[in-house]
Write a structure and sequence with these properties.
This protein has one helix and 20 strands. By secondary structure, the chain is mainly beta. Strands 3, 6, 7, 8, 9, 10, 11, 12, 13, 14, 15, 16, 17 and 18 form a 14-stranded mixed β-sheet that branches. It is flat, with a radius of gyration of 20 Å. The N terminus is likely disordered.
Length: 205
Amino acid sequence: MRYAQILILALLVGCDGQLKNAKSILSESKIVDIPLVTYELQEVFFNKKSSRWQFRVNNALVSGYIVDRFKNGQDAKQISVYEGRKEGTLKTYFPNGQLKYEENYKNNKLHGEVKRWSQQSGYQLMAHLNYKDGKLHGEQKKWFVTGELHKLMHMKEGKEDGIQQAFRKNGKLYANYESKNGRVFGLKRSNLCYELDDQQVVYKD
């Protein structure tokens, strides 16, 4: 970790010792420099054909931070973009400023943690997922709005791998099985069901 911090600092600091106007994201073997420039959503558009963010004026690819706001001035969404693709963190907010979604991207694909909060539950964490190169990977958790654990799943590159559990609100298991090499061992009454709809995570029971 200390080496990574030194590496980022060395890249950001110029010969005159001044910090450059960029934010570095260390992503495995590569470092992406995203300019610390904020653009309003009305200045840009998302090109569905190319899956890239572009400027409305000249169609050039965006690098920086795209912000959408509610009428009350609060941020509704913040998107970290590099050369038109999502890179880093995307945050979506409720009108009062509380976080609604937090997603992490690498090269335009979900990569790392994805979290969702519910206004109904007093802004309690409702889902904590993990992705790798656009696919569910690692431990996945989902809660009821009342706070009880609903599902605990384990995935590997988009497929169930390991112990899969689902609970009722009273804490009793109603699904408890292990997936291994495409085979299922144990009591299977429910599947993990997460999917993407227009680049947003959809949570299904």
